[in-house]
Amino acid sequence: MIPIAISTTFPDGGEYAQAVSAAGGAPRLLVFDPATVDAQLDGAGGVLLAGGGDVAPELYGDTSGYAHEVDAGRDAFELALVRRARERGVPTLCICRGVQLANVAFGGTLVGDIGAAFGAPAAALHRRTIDGEAERGLIDGHAVAVRPDTLLAAIVGGSAVVTGSRHHQSIAAVAPDLDVVATTPDGIVEAVEARFASPFWLGLQWHPESTLALDGGVSTAIFRAFVEAADRLRNAA
Q: pTM, whole model, 2 decimals?
């Protein structure tokens, strides 16, 4: 099985590792140490940047004061990781915080808080709590429109996805080297792809690792396409 390097705070990789394993990959958990990025990438067929706390607002000039659960050490490591993975041509999948971090790494900015910027209805659509816990399943109103003729459209086999969501921030100004390929009706960016050459590069604002058995195979297809791209690159080497 092809090793997939996962950057996450879950000590066992959580649902991210489970999704990678189900797709035929071998999860390899990374340590948040910028000095060892290259060594940790060696032998990895792909890189997955997982969800988590907010990216430090000073990294993209935000002064709104809405950021929380900031981890400067993780930020520094993942900034180095996503940039180095790009340079080395490693297939990359970024999820939730991961896509926000990647957007900042490549020169973009973030919405400090969706509720403050778009209003309460939008906030509820993108993050719903049940009994005090974030909803990890599908949210009926969270309908993502996918742009045709994109990598994501080819993977999901259509132009619309109803999926789960749990985030209070999102992409604002899109990094010049990224391209928006999916949005929700309220204008939130839900997926981006690379403008630069890459064997596979996809960033998703939603959480496919939590909906593998719930969305008719869409989430499964995303992880399978990612792992297959990593495997193809290894076999071509």
A: 0.95
